[in-house]
Amino acid sequence: MFRIEYHCHSNYSSDSDALMEEMVKSAIDKNISEIAITDHVDYDDRYEVSNYNDYINDISIIKEKYSKKISVIYGIEIGLDNKKADIINEFSKFYPFDFIIGSSHAVLGKDLYFDNYFENMDKFTAYTKYFDEMLKNIKTCLSFCVYGHIDFISRYGIYNDNSLKYSDFSDIIDNVLKELIKRGKGIEINTSGYRYGINQTYPSFEILKRYKELGGEILTIGSDAHNVFDIANNFDIAYDMAKQAGFKYITRFKALKPYFVLID
Ligand SMILES: [Zn+2]
Ligand SMILES: [Zn+2]
Fold first, then answer.
1. Rounded to the nearest whole angstrom, what is the distance from the C-alpha of residue 119 to the centroid of ligand 2?
2. CA of 78 to the centre of ligand 2 (A)
3. Is there a contact between 117 and 110 (Cβ–Cβ < 8 Å)?
4. Domain ranges of the chain
5. Which of 13, 106, 247, 250 could be bridged to 39 by S-S, CB 3.0 to 4.6 A?
6. How far is the CA of 103 from the centre of ligand 1 (A)?
7. What is the CATH number of domain 4-262?
């Protein structure tokens, strides 16, 4: 069975201490066939890869060293911001990335984790603005392959009930999904919610199913691991979800182009 791990952070991200090589060895132990290292690029103060040339070089060395056991590809996770689309689009061209995750880590200049984005906003307004900005990001930031953890805002809310039901935001979520599909972009199933005790993937099954119903085909799977233990965690759940939502294929990327692999 060809399984991919397409979202993980090594110590090139300032929120991880994990050595890239150890991440790759953990993926081999867990029978992963292809891994994308996807360290952070955010055009604010946080989590930035310290040196992109070193980053690419290190991936090259590990890719070669483990080539008989696993395929290692050049990935990155970029925090998208439509107001910085020009910088983001330029950056993506400078390095030989195979795979780019575009994510919303900040909305309207406010980091969801570090800043007070939610202050003085009710849940409906805060979540709707998050998706409105996401739609603008999709229309302006051109280089990404899949949108990361698209309903991630529910992890950070400050409300009694932070959950995000598809039916409460169906219009704007449909617009986001349709725009992704129109532009040949995909989404990921991100299993990190399980280790935060939220017991769900990002996105939820409802949103994943809706993406498929609207014609979405490009789908990757990633753990968002920041240490070796979390690599490929809960992937059985993710692959089962994909099948249940009607997907027959998972997507691999090479030089930012998608290739489809049958789920067996
Ligand atoms: Zn992220
Ligand atoms: Zn991540």
1. 24
2. 9
3. yes
4. 4-262
5. 13
6. 6
7. 3.20.20.140
